[in-house]
From TrEMBL:
InterPro entries: DMP19_C. It comes from Polyangium fumosum. It comes from the Bacteria. The lineage of its organism: Bacteria, Pseudomonadati, Myxococcota, Polyangia, Polyangiales. This is DUF4375 domain-containing protein. Residues 41-153 form the DNA mimic protein DMP19 C-terminal domain.
Amino acid sequence: MYSGQSTDELLALEGEYRTDSLVLVFEQALDQKAARVGDKNLTREERTILAIEAFEREVNNGGFSQFFVNSSKEYAPFLVEALNDLGCTEIAALTRQAMKSLGIEGTITVEAIDGVMAVQDEEREAKLGEYDSRYFEIAGDVAGRLLDFIKRNRHKIVLRT
């Protein structure tokens, strides 16, 4: 549980805690920061952490379909970019394909995703299920990549304001 540490103080805990636990604490800290200062005042790097953590949680618990129906979809317009920033190019390409399978014309928005996902579509769900299977084949250590990203960008991740 996050209790006010700085980015460097949290990074100093590497090795004492599991990597996924450590990146979860960064997510908690950034959620608190966003509540204080607003989402629009987060850096790109901070939003990347939130996007990746939300994506990972949803896809690991219920697949792409769950990501697209839960509030985590707020990161969908930024997610492919965030995955590429992390160096997860295969997952980014797969996510781009999953988004394309929604059949949204133009820009991916939360409203457009809501409109598509509100309609039952067994074919779409089957396709998203295929993307889920592929994701689990290629995902690897996303938490480790995210922690490396945090370390590389520590000066752009400010937890205390």
